[in-house]
Specification:
This protein is mainly alpha-helical. 61% of the residues lie in helices and 0% in strands. It contains 7 helices and no strands. Helix 2 packs antiparallel against helix 6. The longest helix is centred in the middle third of the chain and has 21 residues.
């Protein structure tokens, strides 16, 4: 190792363990602040979903900006109309983030550890939602954003 490498290595300090979950939380709050102010229902406010732009089909995330905007305004019914998967997933994501933050602060509570089987189920559920929301038949039209 050269002298420069040694000097640089010695100068690097380790960030506290809570930094990654705090950064994700800060970015999430900033995104919510932007969504509260800039209405995604206005044409041109945000770019079109790249997947929808190329294929004409909706991805599992299509409608999420409008969904979160509606949730921030307190309109859960409209939010579910934009993306029911997001409305369903947000409480779980919030709990997962809180558990991550708690663990980074030294909490050792291990009541919920997602297994590979559980994660596979989530993947299958999201994939099923993706397929079903793109089938244009009457009983499934409510899944479109």
């Amino acid at each position: 190792m050269s002298t420069v490498d040694t000097a640089l290595h010695g100068a690097v300090t380790r960030l506290p363990a809570w930094t990654p979950p705090a950064a994700v939380g800060a970015v999430g709050l900033a995104a919510c602040a932007v969504l509260a102010v800039v209405d995604p229902n206005q044409p041109g406010a945000y770019p079109t979903c790249p997947f929808k732009l190329v294929t004409g089909l909706e991805c599992p995330g299509c409608g999420t900006l409008r969904c979160v905007h509606a949730l921030l305004r307190g309109d859960v019914v409209a939010a579910a109309g934009f993306n029911v998967l997001t409305v369903t997933a947000l409480p779980f994501l919030l709990v997962a983030w809180l558990l991550w933050l708690g663990r980074s602060l030294g909490r050792t509570d291990r009541r919920f550890e997602p297994s590979a089987r559980w994660m596979l189920g989530v993947g299958i559920g999201v994939s099923l939602f993706w397929v079903l929301r793109n089938i244009p038949v009457e009983p499934l039209l409510w899944l479109h954003s």
